[in-house]
Design brief:
By secondary structure, this protein is mainly alpha-helical. It is built from 27 helices and seven strands. It folds into two domains: about 400 residues, Sodium/glucose cotransporter; about 120 residues, TATA-Binding Protein.
């Protein structure tokens, strides 16, 4: 059996395992929240593995090793340090993010500003996630092309088919648990390669002079170890260019929302940061050894040497283990795992915008859960296919990652973070900042790519260092000026928009309308028997499934509820109706369509200390919903 056949057998077994996980979690997909947020039940360990795996692409790892070879520790600011710092920042922001009643960032921004921003931000995030996925598919294409001479089209097909199978089956549940397996494969591969490269140098393999391990590391120059060798101005520029985009990237926010409680989310982000720190440290060891094996690459300098440095590890594996096809196949599986673990995250995140923020919000607000599950899966397939096509247009791995990050930073960093912490932010300011940032950044990227010759320094960077990173500092600055300037010149946001983000506004707006309930009432007893209750962390998940005896327009239902009581509001469109009765929006009762045309769900996620009160609140909401349907002679029955 030749090496490629061995790889295909191993890959088939590996993918079968991933699909089995997706199939296992398929039965748990009862709602949009289950599909996109894993039912908000994920613990810290699984979250940490997933957070780490989703930010370690195969192409990214190869690029990091290449950067280390050519620029030493000074290169960490181009990818490594911003990754770690961003996860730690997110751990700090968990308290603010976790309790927001949203599934996607566009939905969150509509809650904050109104409908004007939801569609454009959904489109921008979709594009960004496609670009992130492009880097993963491109990375695996490079791996398989180097090892086996496989056409890039087939490499792209492997990722597309594998990821689409288990993600469309299991949603975020499958993503998180397969990420745990995939990170383990990647970590094992990286550690094995560190021992292999260092061992080769120590043994004098591949035509090198044998030296001890202490000599290998002792021969590394002091400048190589200096993380500030590129200069403090460049460190600051890289940090401002990359960290904002990665902090506001949608996929880690969705993983925070999927956590069972705030502590799990915070610990998970910190664990993720520690895990990727270990992998990046191992990459540095590999780079030091590769510089000794291939000294001519370091001599080329940056950026000329990057074309050789990026695939240097792949060349080493091919040469060192030419007579051990199982090791080569294992290496290919390890890097394939990295590609899949990122592609599944990005495809899930981008697809949630298509299904939740475009289809359900604008095309069919009254879509049933059964319809939405089909749309969810079709959206995942679309993202993967678009990324596959994009991998043939943007061949540079790190460029795809950075372009996506720069567009995100310039487009919605200020509208998103400003909306969370600044009451005076307005929808007009958010829209202006988003549109100006996006247009300017896309224009700068196009200008830079068109005018930069192959293997040469960036055109914009040659004009002025402040324009490095495709001019992202300029894009962000103009976005900030537009956001803050227009916000100050326009009317403040309404209290309904401010309530989910500022507790004092929610308390002022909320209406304590829960009626006194006789807990011995047979109707209340029947309600409690049919109420589904699951405790996860610091919150309980309450859900009441109802079936109507006849059809009724969903828009009519929402309008009648709002007429019956001013507590009923629709801050993100009519697909979800909230009963705003206190400051914690996530605990407020929400009414949505159920699985079928005549199914309706009432849901709430109260903190455990308010569980009894919220059960009575949910019963009050049920009584009001029953009156609305009763006016049309339609009955509500428990399912």
């Amino acid at each position: 059996m030749n090496g490629y056949s061995i790889f295909l057998v191993m890959l088939t077994v590996y993918i079968a395992g991933l699909v089995a996980i997706g199939w296992y979690f398929n039965s748990r997909q009862k709602s949009i929240t289950d599909f996109w947020l894993a039912g908000r039940r994920i613990g810290p360990s699984a979250l940490g593995f997933s957070a780490a795996a989703s930010w370690l692409t195969a192409g990214g790892i190869l690029a990091v090793i290449g950067y280390y070879m050519l620029q030493g520790m000074g290169s960490i600011w181009a990818f490594v340090a911003p990754n770690i710092i961003s996860l730690l920042f997110l751990a700090v922001l968990v308290k603010k993010i976790k309790n927001l009643p949203a599934i996607t960032q566009p939905e969150l921004l509509e809650q904050r500003y109104g409908s004007i921003v939801r569609l454009p931000i959904a489109l921008i995030i979709t594009v960004v996630m496609i670009l992130f996925s492009v880097s993963d598919i491109t990375g695996l294409s490079l791996v398989l092309q180097t090892f086996y001479g496989v056409d890039p089209l087939y490499a792209a097909a492997i990722v597309a088919i594998a990821v689409s199978l288990y993600v469309t089956l299991g949603g975020l549940y499958a993503v998180i648990w397969t990420d745990t397996i995939q990170f383990s494969f990647l970590a094992l591969f990286a550690i094995v390669m560190a021992f292999a490269t260092v061992g080769t140098v120590a043994d004098g393999g591949l035509n090198t002079s044998a030296i001890s391990v202490s000599q290998l590391f002792g021969n590394v120059s002091g400048d190589w170890w200096n993380p500030f060798s590129i200069g403090l101005p460049m460190v600051l520029i890289f940090s401002f260019a990359l960290i904002p985009g990665w902090i506001t990237e949608q996929d880690p926010w969705q993983k925070i929302w999927s956590a069972k409680d705030e502590k799990s989310a915070s610990v998970g982000m910190v664990l993720g940061a520690l895990m990727i720190t270990v992998i990046f440290a191992v990459c540095a060891v590999i780079a030091i050894a590769l510089n000794n094996i291939y000294p001519e690459i370091a001599g080329m300098g940056y950026p000329a040497g990057m074309a050789s440095a990026e695939p240097a590890l792949l060349s080493f594996v091919s040469e060192r283990f030419a007579s051990a096809p199982v090791v080569v196949a294992f290496s290919a599986i390890g890097l394939a795992a990295a590609s899949m673990s990122c592609t599944d995250t990005f495809s899930t995140s981008g697809a949630s915008c298509i299904s939740r923020d475009i289809y359900q919000r604008y095309i069919k607000p009254d879509a049933t859960m059964k319809e939405m599950m089909l749309v969810n899966r079709a959206s995942v397939l679309f993202i993967i296919l678009a990324a596959t096509a994009g991998s043939f247009i943007i061949p540079n791995i790190l460029d795809a990652i950075q372009i996506a990050t720069f567009i995100a930073s310039s487009s919605y960093f200020f509208p998103l973070m400003g909306g969370l912490y600044w009451k005076r932010a307005t929808k007009e300011g958010a829209f202006a900042g988003m549109v100006i940032g996006f247009i300017v950044q896309v224009s700068l990227v196009a200008l830079d790519l068109i005018n930069t010759p192959p293997l040469a320094a960036s055109y914009l960077e040659s004009v002025h260092p402040i324009l490095m990173g495709h001019g992202v500092i300029v894009g962000m600055s103009l976005s900030a000026i537009a956001f803050f300037g227009v916000s100050l010149m326009t009317k403040p946001s309404s209290k309904v928009n401010l309530a989910p983000f500022f507790e004092e506004e929610a308390k002022e707006l909320s209406l304590s309308e829960t009626k006194k309930i006789n807990e011995k009432d047979p109707e209340y007893s029947a309600f409690l028997k049919n109420l589904n209750e699951k405790v996860t962390g610091e919150r309980a998940h309450l859900q009441l499934n109802l079936h109507t005896s006849g059809n009724l327009s969903w828009q009519e239902v929402t309008e009648n509820l709002k007429t019956m009581s001013p507590a009923w509001v629709t801050p993100t469109g009519i697909d979800s109706v909230y009963r705003l009765t206190h400051g914690d929006m996530l605990a407020c009762v929400a009414v949505t369509r159920g699985t079928g045309e005549r199914d309706i769900w009432l849901k709430a996620e109260p903190r455990l200390e308010t569980l009894g009160t919220q059960k009575r609140e949910l019963f009050t909401a049920y009584e009001e919903l029953k009156k609305v349907f009763g006016q049309k002679n339609v009955k509500l029955d428990y399912i």
